[in-house]
Amino acid sequence: MSPAAPSNQKARTILQAARKVFLEHGFSAATTDMIQQQAGVSKSTVYAHYPTKEKLFIAVVEAECESFLSGMQRIEFQPNGVEALLHQLANTYLDIVLSPVALAQYRVLVGEAPKFPELAHRFYQAGPRAMIRQATELLSRAAEAGELDFGGLSAETAATAFANLVRSELQQHYLLHPEARPSRAQIEQWAETCVFIFLRAFAAKR
């Protein structure tokens, strides 16, 4: 089992408590006392599993990213199905980045990045870059099947462009309007627009 998913029940309890405290208060304002009280364990138990607040925050971030990306990892390329693949990628990614937890986590990480750049870097690698790696693999298969043509660009560049296009407007809007929630229809309409634009750029000419 990965470090992001501890097998010990007390470690999982601490991680769940830390997740709640960090998302409510941010990293700087959160204290070990808050986390210990939320978890219902002693401070020594917290430190036995997570020696520093930074290590605990990293564990929370990586566990959340692992949970979010599990849906992406189940997506597979099917021959003659690149449009359906892109729709699935776009909708799944939007469901991730627009979830209340992901938006709250993103706000915390952006706010803390100047003080704790390593924390932000770990999130970037475990979240956005992991999604792009998964999309790169899938889009490479579509290109190998002759369904996409990147025109000399790499599959990674195309995947990065797609990911940025997908999350751009809606993520920006809901990061700055925390009281609002997107509808299913809104998400699907934006996904449709992103797929249309991407295919206009990279669909292979038949």
Automatic annotation (TrEMBL):
DNA-binding region positions on the chain: 31-50
SUPFAM superfamilies named among the record's database cross-references: Homeodomain-like (SSF46689), Tetracyclin repressor-like, C-terminal domain (SSF48498)
HTH tetR-type domain span: 8-68
Keywords assigned by UniProt, alphabetized: DNA-binding
InterPro entries listed in its UniProt record: Homeodomain-like_sf (IPR009057), HTH-type_TetR-like_transc_reg (IPR050109), HTH_TetR (IPR001647), Tet_transcr_reg_TetR-rel_C_sf (IPR036271), TetR_C_Proteobacteria (IPR039536)
Pfam families from the UniProt entry: TetR_C_7 (PF14246), TetR_N (PF00440)
Domain of life per record: Bacteria
The name this protein goes by in its record: TetR family transcriptional regulator
Lineage: Bacteria, Pseudomonadati, Pseudomonadota, Gammaproteobacteria, Oceanospirillales
